[in-house]
Amino acid sequence: MKMSFKKIGLLLMTSIVFVLSGCMYPAEKTTGQEIPYADQLESMQKAVDAYQVDSGGMLPIKTRDQETDIYIKYPIEFSKVVPAYMEKIPSNAYETGGIYQYVLIDVETDPTVKLIDLRSAERIRDLNLRKNINGRVPFKDPIGDNVYAVDFEAMGFKEALTVPSPYSEAVLPLVIGGDGIFYIDYSIDLNRILKELKPDVKQGEDIRYLLTDNYPVLPAYSLPYTVNEKNEPVFMKK
Known about the structure:
Layout (H helix, E strand, L loop, with lengths): L4 H15 L18 H17 L45 E6 L6 E6 H17 L4 E6 L2 E4 L11 E3 L6 E7 L4 E3 L2 H11 L11 H4 L12 E3 L5 E3 L3
Antiparallel strand pairs: 1-2, 3-4, 4-6, 5-6, 6-7, 8-9
């Protein structure tokens, strides 16, 4: 099967990212289970493509309900591709003790293998559980349309919690939506890309594709972003 330009671009970009993987999580020592290896992504992509051809268009994914976040909606079902289409599950996958969940995006047009950093996912789940236990939604000051800073002190924390960026050396803030759900704020990395690469983006469009197109790890557990009149990332109005 001929590989699309999008997938070729993914492999080229991941090669660059992996060279820099030692600085992706500055607070932790990376191991083989924490690095998004390019060859493992490529092998999984080939396995998914072959499975889709042999199954008449079906994809090796688990079933999730329709309301699931688009970035975590299509996790790969390894039992459908291992060992038939690849020898073993990648070493950095959650199923083998790694920190990543392998998922697909663009399933209707160009199914592409990507990763979810489960350390950040676990932080979000823990906060949502703690909020429910305390019985209070920890809203603080508004920082966007129906988006708020988190009152971590009210939740019993001495300082604001963050997560490591999968795209840079930055640490990312956490916010809470008007729906009472916690989200990761990727504004720092989006702003860096807008300044460094100067992509042609339009107000009103979701610019998270700047991350999904250029990196192997998805901006999961996030809200949509667009740009303001200064070409700065802002939360999209609902």
